[in-house]
Specification:
Blueprint (H helix, E strand, L loop, with lengths): L1 H15 L2 H19 L3 E4 L2 E7 L4 H11 L5 E5 L3 H10 L4 E5 L3 H6 L8 E3 L7 H27 L6 H5 L1 H17 L14 E2 L2 E4 L5 H25 L8 H31 L3 H25 L3 H18 L11 H8 L7
Parallel strand pairs: 2-3, 2-4
Antiparallel strand pairs: 1-7, 4-5, 6-7
Length: about 350
């Protein structure tokens, strides 16, 4: 056992002297420092929505003006033509678009559906249903009173002299009730909860650095480097006196001596950058380290020649960089590329 520890200690010192391992350790530690020092940036919640109104009624004009000045994640802005609205939506300038046809107000009061509001979206549109809810909330603010008065005047009860005589009183009462529920605190009481991370329509976010994916790539790379050094030592007949089982132990010591320092540094780095439960992060790093160790052992069994392994190693690392999530978002890959990603340990970290 003492001999085993001595061998491991020698291999550990040897791995820490390798420039590649030192560079990877330095990068992880530097990322942790950078993450802590760089201040949070404010990210504005902004969803532009094009708005074209062909209805000249004052009610609709007030609704449109209210929408364009609303304090919301939806930024409604007016366009001058259908062509401009189509161009903005197709180019991504607008998330979606609303077209209000001429005569909409007149027909809406009589519940005529011949002139509906046209909503234009694409497959890339975000929250189109919520933008319709936003539009409706402003629409009903100005139309609810007019709809009630219109329906009263259209009813048979309005034809009686008594009802016509009381119409001014009814209008005043309805207007008071309408304003009470729209602007009063009987239904909604507004409480100030500012002072947290959210400020108006912005939120604070740290710089998006793929620290976890990069750490996963470095742990895998360290394990593969350990196999490269073992194969090279074996071909130089350094372990020719070892028996079969002892050679497997030495192979494993090479992997662990390279991969262990990277794993030990990864745990505090992730704790700094991600926060959360430290023990849970430690378990995740330990489990991933075991997976990478098994992965490296598997390749050492398949590729027993140092020359062949040196040719395959760059291909493995290139696949891990491209399909491991360091450079690209794995969720955006199609099914064929996802299969390649799932064959790499970095996919699961």
């Amino acid at each position: 056992m003492k001999l085993l520890f001595n061998r491991f200690f020698i291999l550990l010192k040897r791995s820490l002297k390798q420039p590649v391992n030192l560079v990877m350790l330095f990068i992880l530690l530097a990322l942790a420092v950078i993450y802590r020092q760089v201040p949070s940036s404010e990210k504005t919640l902004y969803v532009p929505v094009a708005l074209l109104s062909e209805d000249s009624d004052p009610l609709m004009q007030r609704t449109v003006e209210d929408l364009t000045h609303a304090n919301s994640i939806f930024h409604f802005y007016t366009v001058n033509s259908r062509e401009q609205m189509y161009e903005d939506i197709s180019s991504g300038t607008a998330n979606s678009g609303f077209l209000i046809p001429a005569g909409f107000t007149k027909n809406a009061l009589s519940t005529d559906t011949d002139t509906p509001i046209e909503v234009y979206t694409t497959e890339a549109s975000m929250l189109p249903s919520l933008s319709k809810d936003e539009f409706f909330s402003h629409f009903i603010r100005y139309y609810s009173f007019e709809l009630a008065i219109f329906q009263i005047k259209e009813s048979t009860a309005y034809s009686t002299p008594e009802m016509q005589a009381r119409m001014a009183e009814i209008e005043s009462t309805l207007k008071e009730i309408n304003e009470k529920y729209l602007n009063g605190s009987d239904i909604f009481r507004v409480e100030d909860a500012s002072g947290g991370v959210y400020n108006d329509l912005t939120r604070e976010e740290k710089v998006d650095i793929p620290v976890r994916k990069l750490a996963g790539l470095f742990i895998l790379t360290a394990g593969l480097i350990g196999i490269a050094t073992y194969l090279k030592d074996s071909e130089e007949r350094l372990y020719m006196r070892l028996r079969g089982s002892e050679k497997y132990v030495m192979r494993l010591l090479h992997i662990i001596s390279c991969i262990l320092p990277m794993s030990l540094v990864t745990w505090p780095v992730l704790w700094i950058t991600e926060g959360g439960n430290g023990l849970l992060l430690l378990g995740q790093v330990a489990l991933y380290t075991l997976v990478c160790t098994f992965y490296a052992c598997l390749f050492s069994v398949i590729l027993r020649s140092s020359a062949v392994y040196q040719k395959v190693l760059p291909i493995l690392l290139t696949l891990a960089i491209i399909f491991g999530g360091v450079l690209f978002d794995i969720s955006s890959f199609d099914n064929n590329f996802k299969v390649i990603s799932m064959c790499l340990p970095t996919y699961y970290f």
